[in-house]
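REVIEWER CHECKLIST
Item 1: Sequence provided? yes
Item 2: Single chain? yes
Item 3: Sequence as submitted:
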Amino acid sequence: MSERHTHASAHGRPKWPVRAMVTCALLTAVSVVLARFLIPTPNEVTRFSLEAVPIFLAGMLFGPLPGALTGFAADFIGCLFSPYGYNPIFCVPPILYGLCAGFFRPWLTRRCSPLRLALAFLPAVVLGSILYQSFALAMIYGGGAKAAYFLTRLAARSVQFAITGILDVLVVCSESIDPMTLVRCYPIGYISMLDGGKNDEKIIAIPFSDPTYNNVQDLMDLPPHLFDEMAHFFSVYKALEGKETVAKDVNDRAAAVEVIRKAMEHYAECFLGGPKAKEELKKSPAWSGGEEEPM
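Item 4: Structure as written out by the authors:
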């Protein structure tokens, strides 16, 4: 056996293949673009984006350590482009997304499905983006009322992640909206329906920034033809699934606000600690619905 062959055998294959490192670097760049350029950061405590998806892919493809390093690198590099700078206390959630994907990798590669992907995301969302991030924000911005700030942020962030799983919202907009886009809206009413024999409220909302429709304050103010199109859509949109839906009565803005608040209270009672959490929720910005058009 030659000396060259012996040397190669002794050291074996490189621990970090070039392909894995290049792929993780590309996923890091994609995460930075998604977080900092495609979707803006409205303030120092709020950031809506899809940056976790490339980080999750890195962990799913190469394991927990590459996933965690991709999360850290994406967060660090992205903060260099942010006016709020870098604070290491906030780097835990992106690292958790990569770690969780890596730990669930054998389970996901065996049989990948939307449900399994959601379950793999869940620990990082709950532990990182909701619990830890609320704690970190309270430590930095809570001042002398850290406990109250923590509970308020916890309620707001929990509703942010969960409310879309509780309520269906149809956004009336003059421009087309790409999938997975977050749009800040205010409710103008809801259509009560029967979906599979169960009551189902469909909230109708208007984007704050849409000049064509943001003068509409109530569902009945919409043009009749547009209202008829919505009612028809909701009556047939599940026909391909073999499910029957029936559009019932129409309700105004005040009724829609009440439905939203009841959904928020129900979530707080079930998942955030009961009556005390409900009271803290009412102090949250999510309860008022925004400064421009308070609920």
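Item 5: Key structural point noted by reviewer: The chain is about 55% helix and 10% strand.
Item 6: Recommendation: ____
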